[in-house]
Amino acid sequence: MAVADKKPPPKEYDYDDIVISLENCILPSEKIDVTPSMKDGLDRDTETELRMLGCEMIQIAGLLLKLPQVAMATGQVILQRFYYSKSLIKHEIDVTTMAAVYLAAKIEEAPRRIRDIINVCYHIRQRKLKKPIIPMDFLSTQYFNMKNAVIKAERRILIELGFCVHIKHPHKIIITYLQILDAEKNVALARRAWNYMNDSLRTDVFVRYVPEKVACSCIFLAARIEKINLPLRPPWWELFDITNEEIEEIALIILRLYSTPRRKLSTLQSIVGKIKKLHQEKKESEEAVAAAKPGSFTPAYTQSSNTVNTNNTKPASKSNSPEKDSEKKLNSVITSRVERSFDSHERHRDSSNHQDRRRKKSDESNDSTESESDSESELPSRKYARQRKQYESKKRSSASSDTDSDHCNNSLKNRRSLSPIDRKREKLNEYRKERNGHHRNDNYIKPKKRSRSRSPVKRMSSPQRKYHKDTRNTEVYRDKYLKSRR
């Protein structure tokens, strides 16, 4: 029974490991040594300059957009990581810079509108190229194309980085390490180390080393410049699990940033444009070669080959067997029949076109003679009635035009014949008509006079009012007074 109660061990399955960590993504040396841009033909110096330029644009855009320093640092690290998986030839630095700012602002909980980011980066680009500063029209196709490109670039960055966009920054680590070394009160040392940290964001040290090592190298550089002695017995870097060689390597990468000569943005863009053109020409030549192959799907047509084998007939061979002769005869018969049918079809088409032209001409001639034929076929009575109507309509139109001129002339003649007093009376009557509104329209209705009382109820006349009216005539007043006395 004991043997029966034993259960078989659970079956083990092999799954891929998923590692969740808050540490920065450190790239292997194989990926750093040969980048996708170098594979496309871009030299390392031009690539580093373009990377530095993109990071500098992110820093300036962050200052203009009033972003926190953490958001600017995140954007620069994202840009460096992205261009280790994608080429600078295939993806423009300007669009990727805007997308990095847009994404970093959202990651660090300080989002900005995409319109503001495009406007600021466009302004920086104009200043770099020394062009007249003209703001972008937000209703133009240029703005909408740029906006769509930035949104697509943001998605591409997230896909390439696997949505692992959390970045640990060494700014707080510097202050912690200075406290351990009892040098946090030295403001000049802390400020210098902080500045080196911000400048190192333009390099790829955050992709090569962990932030603790970068913080130690920044303190090392700041202590050298400020001439401050750090403890060497025991060495202070052993306290933070770092070697002196690593500190010197990171310090050299940071110092190389200040010693490299800068080229203009226009020259860098021209280099990238030339490489793009070469790639495009190479692609077109490869497509042409692939099309020219006999096994390819698309047929290759050349200027020398004037004839094309449309009948799918086999070429003539040297050995003439009876079967092949019969095939040749059959093919020749088929081709002759096809040619005849084609010729007959063409003749039929030409004849139909010719008939159409003749019909059009006949229709035009019929239209021109239609009026004459109608007039000839009409009965005399109907023809007379039609002509009379035309004559009357013409007479009316001429009479209506003449009446206005006759009216003006008659009025002038009448005025001349009238005496001066009658003229004045006539003028007075015209003036009154104009005031009453008769000059506007014959059907003009004169508005009613408004009652003195504003209320809709009719005003009642008081006896006192009547009495005052009657007092105007003294005789009437006297009679009424005497009657009242009786």
Structure report:
The protein has 486 residues and is mainly α. The chain is 65% helix and 0% strand. The protein contains 19 helices and no strands. It has helices at 2-5, 29-33, 36-39, 44-64, 69-82, 93-107, 114-128, 141-160, 171-180, 187-200, 205-208, 211-226, 244-259, 265-292, 322-377, 380-417, 420-436, 463-470, 474-485. Helix 12 packs across helix 13 (244-259). The chain is flat, with a radius of gyration of 51 Å. Mean pLDDT is 77; it is low at 297-319 and 455-472.
Write the layout of secondary structure elements.
Layout: H1 2-5, H2 29-33, H3 36-39, H4 44-64, H5 69-82, H6 93-107, H7 114-128, H8 141-160, H9 171-180, H10 187-200, H11 205-208, H12 211-226, H13 244-259, H14 265-292, H15 322-377, H16 380-417, H17 420-436, H18 463-470, H19 474-485
Backbone structural class? mainly alpha
Percentage of residues in DSSP E strands:
under 5%
Instruction: Identify low-pLDDT runs.
Output: 297-319, 455-472
Number of helices: 19
Largest sheet: none
Q: Secondary-structure element order, as H and E?
A: HHHHHHHHHHHHHHHHHHH
Instruction: Sum up the overall morphology in one term.
Output: flat
Alpha-carbon distance between the two ends: 151 Å
